[in-house]
Amino acid sequence: MARKRKNANGSAHTLPTDDDVRRGMFERHVSKIEAAEAKVKLYTKDVKDLYAEAKREKFKVREVKHALRLKTEEGLESIRAEREEQQRVERWAQVVVGAQAEMFDVRSVDRVFLDGERAAFSDRPRKPPKELHVKDHPRWCAGYDNGRMITNDERAKNFKETKTLGEAAADVVDSLAA
């Protein structure tokens, strides 16, 4: 609430308080935001109409958005990151996408072998699935063995070199004697 003070001529004069100043600033912001939101609503409707028009002409919204992303540096970076991620996952899953085997000497993907590897990576038992044909069991087991070898090598890296049992026992005896 504003305070009242008398001027030199004796008339009452209202001085603004900090709260009055802040309320005025707040009202200015509210009116600016209100006008901007009205524009956003108008433009949002226009954008939706343009997407609908493109869709009627048999273009996918995803294609249009992709083209728009290609026009900005941030969009290009995000597309590159997505592609790298997709290619990494495809490589891990050993899915050959977009290669011509006769042109690039690409190995054919042995899904049975890969399923065996995945079972080993997941620490499942060495038992082929029941739905797998009997003639595929050796390839599944070979994949499992390969996956187990990779997993064991990776886990062995995490172990530190340890002493032999005799050396450890001698250290315990020495520490008790001391």
Would you give an account of this structure?
A two-stranded antiparallel ribbon has the order 1-2. With 178 residues, the protein is mainly alpha-helical. Helix 2 crosses helix 3 and helix 5 (111-121) packs parallel to helix 6. A hairpin with a 5-residue loop joins strand 1 and strand 2. The longest helix is centred in the first third of the chain and has 39 residues, at 18-56. The mean pLDDT is 82. It is built from seven helices and two strands, in the order ββααααααα. 66% of the residues lie in helices and 4% in strands. The termini are far apart. It has helices spanning 18-56, 61-70, 73-92, 101-104, 111-121, 137-157, 165-177; strands spanning 3-6, 12-15. The protein has a domain at 110-164.
Structure at a glance:
The chain is mostly helical. The protein has helices at residues 18-56, 61-70, 73-92, 101-104, 111-121, 137-157, 165-177, and strands spanning 3-6, 12-15. The chain has a domain at 110-164.
Total count of strands: 2
Taking the alpha carbons of the first and last residues, their distance comes to: 83 Å
Give the strand order, joined by hyphens, for the main sheet. 1-2
Could you tell me the mean pLDDT? 82
Tell me what portion of residues adopts beta-strand conformation: under 5%
Taken from the alpha-carbon principal axes, the silhouette is: flat
Main sheet properties: 2 strands, antiparallel
- Please tally the helical runs, counting DSSP H or I stretches of 4 or more residues: 7
Listing every helix as H and every strand as E from the N terminus to the C terminus, the arrangement reads EEHHHHHHH
Calculate Rg over CA atoms. 36 Å
Helix content: 55-70%
Classification by helices and strands:
mainly alpha
Which ranges are low-confidence, i.e. pLDDT below 50, for 5 or more consecutive residues?
A: none
